[in-house]
Predict the 3D structure of the following.
Amino acid sequence: MARPFRSALYVAAVTCTAAVIALPSAGWPQTYPSKPVHIVVPFAAGGGTDNTARIFAQKYAEVWKQQVIVDNRAGAGGNIGADVVAKAAPDGYTLLFTPGGIAVSASLYRKLPFDPRRDFAPATQVASTHMILVTNPKFPAASVKEVIALAKAQPGKLNFGSSGVGAPSHLMGEVLKATAGLDIVHIPYKGDAQSIPALLAGEVHMVFVPLLIALPHMKNNRLRGVAVIGAARPQSAPEVPTMVESGLRDFQFTGWQGIFAPAGTPQEVLSKISADTVKVLRMPDLAGRLPGMGLEPAGTSPAEFAVLYKSDIEKYARVIREARIPLID
């Protein structure tokens, strides 16, 4: 009589064990997040990335019914904040909100405390951004074709400013040089906060900057938009042609803002972040606000974002190698 009891007990135990084992993958997305989420911004408060992250943090808090805390960890070109997230627990409660410059770090630095290729799990591309080539309105060339013609007529005489050696603005200048076969001089500054005033003062001839930064100056006619980098003209500056439209077919890079989690974060959590980002992007007040910030909604899946991230790492590595940009220790 004892055997049926033991058999029934064994079956019950196995069933309960299977249920417990299945519980995390089945239940995690529904319960995440069950406590405050920290979003690390690897730049100082008040900048473009920080402002965007805070807007999204507020919306995530509404969707998740949890506190979402923005934590600024600036320094080393964004690498300090990235390292914080790389070493955090892979549970979805510490996230990195960053622009595409993180893809540059993979090839620009000789040694990093983290591996940009392996230490992060891409969750979603939040938005697309545009880099734009701008000049002072007094500069005689108003189009890409005119810039190219002027530069070729005066080899080594024209220059372009950037926010620093190896910054996306520097790399885009190198792409312009290589694509159009130009001899123009690079003048690095310490951030856009220095390069833009230099351009306004006529110290440099042209600068690549995020559209978000250029828009206010363009609207006040203090800067002229020459061409944007991207597949299509931005909603916030439809009058500015793309580099491809301007005749440079190989000049195609996509800027972005995205969210990463530490490597090893459950796929269900990454998918939840992605799905909830789509919900946030569909909120009418946010959807109407993004174009004016130089942003266009994305909300990609983790897999789609991973493909973009890998592609950008390879593209920037090629630019750094071919332009012989010195690596940073």
User: Anything to note?
Assistant: Residues 1-27 have pLDDT under 50 and may be disordered. The CA atoms of residues 42 and 76 lie 9 Å apart.
